[in-house]
Structure formats: structure tokens, C-alpha cells
Amino acid sequence: MTTELSKAEERLINEFIIWDKKRKTIENIFNYILLILGIAILVMVSFFTFKHLHNNLILMATAPGFLTGILIIWLFFMGKRRIKEYQLITSILKKLHAQD
Asked: What's the per-residue H, E or C state across the chain?
């Protein structure tokens, strides 16, 4: 029992296939740039904190840097999760579309 897909559904399937072919690698590269940036921020802030441990206010001055680094690394993990979900959806849609 097969049903015809509407134009919007067909367009959605094509968008997922195009994303899989073209934009997936760009998003992966962007995610790894985020990871490198987040680690670099954390390393710099950690070095600066350890260099100035004698100053009592340094932890308050570097806390935004730590939070920024952690936020950027969190964005990396959420992006990787999103890419994996899109890959799974795309592979399922390809299989279903091939059956028709």
C-alpha cells in the first residue's frame, strides 16, 4: 500500500538529501572550529588564572571566559548531535524514497 507524496513532502525529502550531500561537511567543519575555539579559550583563561593566583579578584575576572569556553564546547556537542539526527533522518528518507 503506497501513497503519493505531496509536493511539500517531496521537497522536504530533497532538502534532506541536498543537506546530506553538500552542507553536512560544512557543518562538521564549523563544529570542529567551535571545538578548537572553545578549548583555546579555556586554555588561555586557565593559564591567565594560574598566572595571577595571588590576585583575589582574578576568579571573578576570568569566570566569563570559563563560561564562554564551556558554552562554545556545549554548542559543539549539540551541533554533533543535530548532525547525527539529520543523518539518521536522511538515511531513513532515502530508503523510504527508494522503495517507491
From this structure: CCCCCCHHHHHHHHHHHHHHHHHHHHHHHHHHHHHHHHHHHHHHHHHHHHHCCCCCCHHHHHHHHHHHHHHHHHHHHHHHHHHHHHHHHHHHHHHHHHHC
Query: The whole model's pTM is what?
Result: 0.80
Q: Cα dist. 54→46, 50, 61 in Å?
A: 14, 9, 13
Q: From residue 35, how far is each of 9, 22, 83 by CA, in Å? A: 35, 21, 15
- The pLDDT value given to residue 100: 65
